[in-house]
Amino acid sequence: QTSFEDEGMQAQLDEMHAAHRALKRRLVAGRDSELAEARARLGGKVVDLNLERGLDLGSTSNSRIRCLHAQVADYLVRGSNDIGKQVLEELEERGVSTTGCTACSEYCGMTAPIESVDWKFESRKYIVKRSVRRQISREKDTGR
Question: DSSP 3-state assignment of 142?
């Protein structure tokens, strides 16, 4: 039986989301002008919704699990996220290193100026957007 099937999983998910909501409230406490600016730019509903969501910003349900990378990060920081722990264990069982590599620690370790590292992180969303923009540009150039 995996932790995803444990009866106590829902209680743990509820606690984790509550902890992240509380953290968000602490982080914005006393920052009224910045919150007002965010509400003006993004809309009050968007800001309030994000403040009231837990770890997983993509879901309003406390029983839905997404963003496994966020679960792992939560486990590494708080040490009490069984989902994150299980993800790390299963990656290690598959032979995936979860301790990083020289290139990773070079980029994240901040021992060298960011301009001198051999690789750069690009989010998948950015890569897809860039690809779509290039395709649109090509189609404009060819008159399609």
Answer: helix
At residue 30, does pLDDT exceed 90?
Answer: yes
133-140: long-range contacts at Cβ-Cβ below 8 A with a sequence spacing of 24 or more?
A: none
Query: DSSP labels for 12-45?
Result: HHHHHHHHHHHHHHHHHTT-HHHHHHHHHHH-HH
Q: Give the closest residue to 87 by CA, choosing from 105, 101, 75.
A: 75
Q: Give me the half-sphere count of Cα atoms (radius 13 Å) on the Cβ side of residue 28.
A: 18
Cβ–Cβ under 8 Å, residues 52 and 60 = no
47: number of Cβ within 10 Å: 18
Closest CA to 84 of 92, 96, 73: 73
Section 98-121 average pLDDT: 70
- pTM equals 0.58
